[in-house]
Amino acid sequence: MKYSIITLFPNLINSYVNESIIKRAIQKERIEIEIIDLRDHTNYSHNQVDDYQFGGGKGMVLMVEPVVNAIENCWTNESLIVLTSPQGKTWNQNLAKKLSKEYKHIIIICGHYEGFDERILDYVDMELSIGDYVLTGGELASLVFIDSITRLIDGVIQSESHQNDSFENNLLDHPVYTKPVNFRNKSVPEVLLSGHHANIKKFRQEGRIINTFNKRPDLLKENKLCKEDLEILNKLKNRKEE
Ligand code: ADE
Questions:
Q1: HSE on the CB side for 199, CA within 13 Å?
Q2: Fewer Cβ close by (within 10 Å): the C or N end of the chain?
Q3: Is 173 annotated as a binding-site member?
Q4: What's the pLDDT tens digit per position in 194-213?
Q5: Which of the following is catalytic: 66, 86, 127, 208?
Q6: Positive or negative CA dihedral for 180, 19, 151, 92?
Q7: How far is the CA of 128 from the centre of ligand 1 (A)?
Q8: How high does pLDDT run on average in the chain?
Q9: 111 annotated as belonging to a binding site for a ligand
Q10: Helix 139-150 vs helix 10-17: angle between axes, to the nearest 10 degrees?
C-alpha cells in the first residue's frame, strides 16, 4: 500500500510514521508513505495556499489550485483520493478493512483552517471524518486512517492479532490479563491459567458478549449472533432485569 499525504504540516506526519508499527511496516516494505507539502504546489507568491472567503466570514480557506496541483502530481489510475473533513462519512473498522483490501494507493488531503474551497470536492472520491467533533486540521485524522488500515495489511502484525479485534463481527474484544496473577486481591480468572483451550475459547467469547452488552449495546442490535451467543446474551439480559 502506498499513501500520499498532502499536508501543510509535513513534520506532524513524519514524526508519527517514524515510530513503532508504522515505521516497521515501512522498513518491511509493506507500505510506503509519501509526504507532500502543499506549499510546494502553489503558484501564488509567498507560498500562499489559503485566502479569505468570498462573501465575508471568519477564517482562511484552503485554495483549490494548490490542492489540485498536488493531487495531479501523485495521482495514478490506481489512486483513491480521500479528503479529511468533519462533514465526511464517519470512519470505522469496516471502512478500514475495505480500503486495506481494495486499494493500492490512497491519497489523503488534510483539510485545514476554516475549511476548503468547495470545488476541491470535484477531485475527491471520498470525504472522511473520524467523528462528530472538529479538529484544527486533518493531520490527526489522516494518521488515524493510515494507522488503522496499515495494521490490517498482511505481514504488518500477526493476523491473529486483528482477527478478534474489537468491532470484528460487531463485538468488542474480550478482556485480557498479564502478570501478576494476583494484584491487590484481584486475580486473573482461573480458566485462563488452566491450559484448557476449549474452556478458554468459550470464556473469551462470553467476554466479548459481556463487554459489548455492557459498553456498546448499540452494536448488538446490528448483530447476527449464533445460538450459543444468543443464550449468553439472554442470560445477561435476564440478570439485568432481576
Ligand atoms: N478535520 C476537522 N475535523 C475533522 C474530523 N472530525 N474528521 C476528519 N477531519 C477533520
A1: 8
A2: C
A3: no
A4: 999 999 999 999 999 999 99
A5: 86
A6: positive
A7: 8
A8: 95
A9: yes
A10: 30
Ligand 1 atom nearest the C-alpha of 84 is 9
Name 88's Cβ contacts closer than 8 Å, sequence gap at least 6. Answer: 126, 127, 128, 129
| 86 noted as active-site residue | yes
Residue 225's pLDDT is 85
Amino acid residing at 95:
L
Convert the pLDDT of each residue in 49-59 to its tens digit: 999 999 999 98
Half-sphere exposure of 106 (CA within 13 A, CB side): 27
Domains of the chain: 2-150 (3.40.1280.10), 182-241 (1.10.1270.20)
Q: In 3D, which of 70, 74, 52, 71 has the Cα closest to residue 61? A: 52
* Ligand 1 centroid, distance to 173 Cα (angstroms): 27
Nearest CA to ligand 1 atom 8: 129
Give the C-alpha separation, 150 to 161, whole Å. Answer: 13
Q: What confidence tens digit (pLDDT) does each residue in 54-108 have? A: 999 998 999 999 999 999 999 999 999 999 999 999 999 999 999 999 999 999 9
